[in-house]
Amino acid sequence: MGATQWAGITLAAPVAAEDIASLYRDQLVEEQSVVWDERLGAVRALRRRRLGAVVLTEEGISNPEQQLVTTALLQGICQAGLKTLHFTPELTQWLTRIAWLKQLEGSDSDWPDLSEETLLQTLGTWLGPFVSGMTTLNAVTRMDMSTPLHAMLTYEQHARLDRLAPTHITVPSGSRLRLDYSLSGPPVLAVRLQEMFGCQETPRVAGGHIPVMLHLLSPAKRPMQVTQDLGGFWKRAYQEVRKELRGRYPKHHWPEDPLSAIPTAKVKRRNDAG
What we know:
The protein is an alpha+beta fold and 274 residues long.
């Protein structure tokens, strides 16, 4: 018969640990390891004594070096991906606002690269100091990522971000409405058409350089027109839109001259058709 990789043991005798220590003292290896256990979703700190590949003893370490624990934890987070962390919708928009400005300003921009790829590559820099003392992925996922990420901007950058890429815009009716940022175009402002009466110019961001994309809505918040040229909409398209709105919402006020009308956020219907 040919040789096989594995051979069966037909006769064996126990060897005491003391005998191994005496016979193979020079070959015994004692080592400590702090590793990420993907199955447990936690850092494991172990002390092992082995002879070659044979582990003779293994026990947990109660007080491993903290930097080694943090390094192993960050490796686990990197394996799991940023999707496992707690990014609120507000924080996601915060990241998008920065990316939008960075894209707008081009190669001269001083905004940090906060893309998913870069954040994963720099976990130790921005997240490491905030997870010291943690040992499980579950503990990290309960964190609000706003604190470590906001710390990556200077005070001046925070102020500039709010000035150039504001989260909200106050429209003529007095409503303060949220802007929706993306990297595919200008920020979107969804607003009821009636709230823009009397306004000739499209609201702008980025220091007045970029007009927002207006999604002009019906009283039921259905989009009626999408435009970056509000003045042009009043001149060229409003009358046709007005006909449709008067048919759908006859008890609302649809003035013939929208620029002389008073903007309103009220959705309560009027008794007159207007």
